[in-house]
Design brief:
This protein has about 325 residues and is of the alpha/beta class. It is built from eleven helices and 17 strands.
Length: about 325
């Protein structure tokens, strides 16, 4: 039996002068990690801002913990939901610790005094997020990845049941992207928060999100990322004439026109060797097939190519592509 919802929408219509999406109904629960995706201009930002009380809906209701969003004061909203927005904020003059202190403003008195429980939460978050070495630095001294961690830490310190993040992994390198998603999973699955983040990063959605909200043709569809692969919706939404979604591998790849067919036989090889062999060959214009006489025999750690001069043994994919004349 599911617990009470944290956030819900009833017949919600979002837009500006006219509706952008069909009426929306949903419920979000503690532990949900939700990725919002869709092509540019589909209404992601408007929906995101509407759910976060930054843009008024055209009609319908948004309910936060059994209270109508419109009936809540700014301080009440700040105790229920926190935000991490994309891009720089003109905040280079702030210290890391100052940013975290700001996260406690909904709970302080008129003079903004912090109590012991506030400092305990700040210290716990600094340890959790790994900010010990930079806590006294100015934001202007930090990398983009470090700054993003600081603002996520501020949202943690705000300690709201619902957390919204706009493109949290945008422009980050791979280690920082993985670290950000680790923190979001921690907040959702260990701390029991509801986390909603918008993203163009399909890898993040597939690897981390428990739910995918996918906007297509003015409709908000909701489900597991894996179900959207199986039912073809990811392909339908994002594939183009020159790109296609590979449902077997869960990745987007270029559609190669006039690809040269190449027959392969795999003899008791690992999944990794088979996968990356096909990957390397497709990148240089081959369509790999299994019918007909095999030009390449793939064995564990070895690729044997049939040539006019006889079998040519290759001990790496680089050597294989050189043999095929693709390097």
């Amino acid at each position: 039996m599911k617990p009470d919802f944290l956030l819900s929408a009833k017949s919600l219509v979002v837009g500006h002068d006219k509706p952008l999406l069909k009426p929306i109904d949903f419920s979000v629960y503690a532990g949900d990690l939700i990725c919002l995706m869709g092509i540019n201009g589909c209404g992601k930002t408007t929906l995101f801002k509407t759910l976060g009380a930054q843009h008024a809906p055209l009609s319908g209701e948004i309910i936060l913990k059994n209270k109508n969003l419109n009936a809540l004061s700014s301080r009440e909203k700040a105790k229920l939901m926190s935000f991490v927005l994309a891009g720089r904020r003109g905040d280079d003059h702030l210290r890391v610790e100052d940013v975290l202190i700001l996260g406690r403003y909904p709970y302080t008195n008129f003079w903004g005094e912090l109590q012991k429980k506030d400092w305990n939460l700040i210290e716990e978050t600094i340890e959790l997020v790994g900010l010990q070495d930079i806590r006294h630095k100015m934001l202007g001294e930090l990398s983009d990845g470090q700054r993003q961690k600081v603002w996520i830490a501020r949202a943690f310190v705000q300690d709201t049941p619902i957390l919204f993040l706009d493109e949290p992994t945008n422009f980050l390198d791979i280690p920082h992207r993985l670290e950000i998603m680790r923190l979001l999973r921690l907040m959702a699955r260990v701390r029991g928060k509801a986390v909603v983040f918008s993203s163009h990063d399909w890898d993040c959605a597939l690897s981390a999100a428990s739910w995918l909200w996918l906007i297509h043709e003015s409709e908000l569809m909701m489900g597991l990322p894996e179900d959207f692969i199986l039912n073809g919706k990811i392909h339908e939404v994002f594939s183009r004439s020159d790109f296609v979604f590979d449902a077997e591998r869960g990745v987007f790849k270029e559609r190669i026109i006039g690809a040269q067919k190449l027959s392969l036989a795999f003899n008791d090889v690992s999944f990794e060797q088979k996968h990356w062999t096909l990957h390397a060959l497709s990148k240089v214009g081959f369509e790999c097939v299994s019918e007909g006489e095999s030009l390449i025999i793939v064995e564990q750690g070895l690729w044997t190519v049939k040539t006019e001069q006889g079998p040519k043994r290759c001990h790496s994919l680089e050597e294989l592509l050189n043999t095929l004349g693709r390097f």
